[in-house]
Threonine synthase
Amino acid sequence: MLVKYDLESIAATVKKADLLTRGNSMWRYAEWLPVSDPASVVSLGEGGTPLLRMDAMQRRYGVQGVYVKREEQNPTGSFKARGFAAAVSLLKEKGVAKAAVPSNGNAASALAAYAARAGMEAVVIVPGDCPGMIIEECIRYGAHTYQVDGLIHDAGRIIEDGKQEQGWFNAGTLREPGRVEGKKTMGLEIAEQLGWKLPDVIIYPTGGGSGIIGLWKAFQELREMNWIEGELPRLVSVQEAGCQPIVDALQAGSAGEGAVASENATSSPTGLRVPKPPDGNLVVSIIRETGGTAVAVSKEDIRRAQTELGLQGISSSPEGAAAWAGFARLREAGWIKPAETAVVFNTSHADKYIDWIPRVAPAVVRTYNDLKPLYESRRRG
Amino acid sequence: MLVKYDLESIAATVKKADLLTRGNSMWRYAEWLPVSDPASVVSLGEGGTPLLRMDAMQRRYGVQGVYVKREEQNPTGSFKARGFAAAVSLLKEKGVAKAAVPSNGNAASALAAYAARAGMEAVVIVPGDCPGMIIEECIRYGAHTYQVDGLIHDAGRIIEDGKQEQGWFNAGTLREPGRVEGKKTMGLEIAEQLGWKLPDVIIYPTGGGSGIIGLWKAFQELREMNWIEGELPRLVSVQEAGCQPIVDALQAGSAGEGAVASENATSSPTGLRVPKPPDGNLVVSIIRETGGTAVAVSKEDIRRAQTELGLQGISSSPEGAAAWAGFARLREAGWIKPAETAVVFNTSHADKYIDWIPRVAPAVVRTYNDLKPLYESRRRG
């Protein structure tokens, strides 16, 4: 599923300075994206998010550099916009009419928005305890929205069971190449924003893990083109205790020796709660290869980090706050050295996660057979 | 209060192409901003928001061009970030330790965030029916947050009454030069994003009206520098029926002949509800000068526009949706011609305006004397 580019030919045609004359969206990196026809691009203004130096936090934590990558400033308020801009563009090129996604929330609202922009039908299935604001967002963008009595992989099963009968394209994690390629632009952007000098450490909140895959792929491609030099950043996954398959797999040394999975997830209903990441083994091996690590933080750590970022003027999602808590822990443990520089990803903003019940609650389903009559009757109008 | 620049000297030193080598925030227009020392800049990554062409809406409304300027992608989720980035930078330069603002919501959360970033104290006072999410945001950023039993001008009176005793700087609309200058970057940015060719019409939702003033000032400056040619855009104010002082003043032809004001505001609790805009006369005369107009739309118009934008993948605030409703009305009436191009401002996103009660409700006060003991006791901790 990882797209191969002719990097030699890109290096021969594009110079770093050429990028400056392009717009600020992620499509400035068009040569590194799999959408060949510019007319197929489905864009809502994604990418080009700020990389904010946290001067006061550098002093507090005694570190040379710490930045927050403000992915909450994307359309739909999360980093998921990048992946779905690329994925929906590819689906449009292929003439797909209906796309479906199992999601903890932000992927659902991103598919909903990009499908709306493309004039495509979207079907999204989220857990029963998905934050109400995100459900409202999916409905606002016109998606067929359902809740599953279960977790994200249960939602995925419903889509797999119904896709043939309904003609849905399953746009779930690693089901198609666009989402990883779109997320890859986060890595390209960090490199450009830091003057093509990468940080020592990148801290990323991890559910399915395609963010880690995207960052790693960006740096591989830039290195192959000789646009960057030296060591790649150590990539760090942060998860919430109670659903930490990546952390567990790294500790157990089990990469490549079986599925990376957690049983009985007890963590909060956020993007971090992915008990069975579809490509967990790849994520674990990337982290190992870069000399990175994985950290599990508690709900209380997340709450404290959210407060700390808030008092710096930044609204962070629980996932982004978890990454910040991971930074604090690794700095305090000395794993991040005083002379190093770290980039921490804030993947969404706090507002989406408040305790609020959507005005029109979607139906809760267990199986495709539950969903089918509801969906078909709504489609008939 | 309007800052004068040596535009000849800017034109002599800066070329359009120079801007390309700068970052994407509003500070790429540093020469047009009143902050002289780069070390004083208080930034959270504001500006550089997408200008999104609405192809499907061009077809639906039969118009050459219609764009949405996505100001909701700013820090704090609204256009107010630009004004407060500039204002708080200036206050920091002056050594101000405590800033206060009367606000319908988004100005309060923007001051709160930028003051937090600057290590400054913020005091914000919003109406009793201010959306709960915005109140929560102010608290998250650490501002002293109060609700007034009244409207925005009642909040302003409390700040005026207390500012001497408490050492507050009143950062209300047109009390200092930074906010207009920051908003001016919206105009500079549109010009640059459209290749220095301005649209025929710009539609802006109007409360206090400093957005209109900022846009107008941007175009004046660019024209004086010969960076743009031809007619300036017709500027359009959109307000909600029930609080429409700008609309009324334009219809009555009263500009310059007394205060622009509405009595007994009955419109919704949004940024549009400013019964007594501090510089209403200037706003009205700018609209006249550009051949623009002002439109009052209903709650139902706003709801419909919000739905229409949502189904295009855009989350709009009631203010942004009001502007879109104004576009629809003016296009349908033929005031915007088929061969013309319009830019519509979406100033914030929908999530902030849901019906939700903040976890910790701030105290409701009527006068400075009500607020004083609460504030002083909280400051003592």
Q: What stands out?
A: Chain A has two domains: 7-77+178-353, 80-176+358-380. Residues 10 and 215 of chain A are 19 Å apart (CA to CA). The two ends of chain A are 37 Å apart (CA to CA).
